[in-house]
Automatic annotation (TrEMBL):
InterPro entries: DAGK (IPR000829), DAGK_prok (IPR033718), DAGK_sf (IPR036945). Its cofactor is Mg(2+). The keyword Cell inner membrane applies. The gene is dgkA. GO terms for biological process: phosphatidic acid biosynthetic process. This is Diacylglycerol kinase. It comes from Pseudomonas atacamensis. One of its GO terms (cellular component) is plasma membrane. Its EC number is 2.7.1.107. GO terms for molecular function: ATP binding; ATP-dependent diacylglycerol kinase activity; metal ion binding.
Length: 120
């Protein structure tokens, strides 16, 4: 067992919740792209309640919006880790950051595609 592991049981869940809230706060205050995606979600998710779609379709429309937030959190985490390691320009650092950006591009494309398929 790792000496770096924390508490167990309810204490672990409470600690993890605090870390998660800290991460959301850091993303919201420090990442413009995350704030833009939150705004997009604030518009699109309530919109699903006014669309003439089934509950399953509504769930899919909401899920793809939330997925873009998840991808942005992971992309921001990769960028922060790369910057923590070194700010020097390196091809592997560029590749890691570019792949994170590509993942976000795919997630945003998926929002457009899924919404188009369901609504058109």
């Amino acid at each position: 067992m790792s000496p770096f592991k924390g508490q167990t049981g309810l204490k672990r869940i409470l600690n993890a919740s605090g870390y998660s809230l800290d991460g959301l706060r850091a993303a919201f205050t420090g990442e413009a792209a995350f704030r833009q995606l939150v705004l997009l979600n604030v518009v699109l998710i309530p919109l699903t309640f006014f669309l003439n779609v089934s509950r399953v379709e509504q769930a899919v429309l909401i899920a793809v919006c939330l997925l873009a937030l998840i991808v942005e959190l992971l992309n921001s985490a990769v960028e922060a880790a790369i910057d923590r390691i070194s700010l020097e320009l390196h091809p592997l650092s560029k590749n890691a950051k570019d792949m994170g950006s590509a993942a976000q591009f795919v997630a945003l494309s998926m929002i457009g595609l899924v919404w188009a398929v369901i609504l058109l």
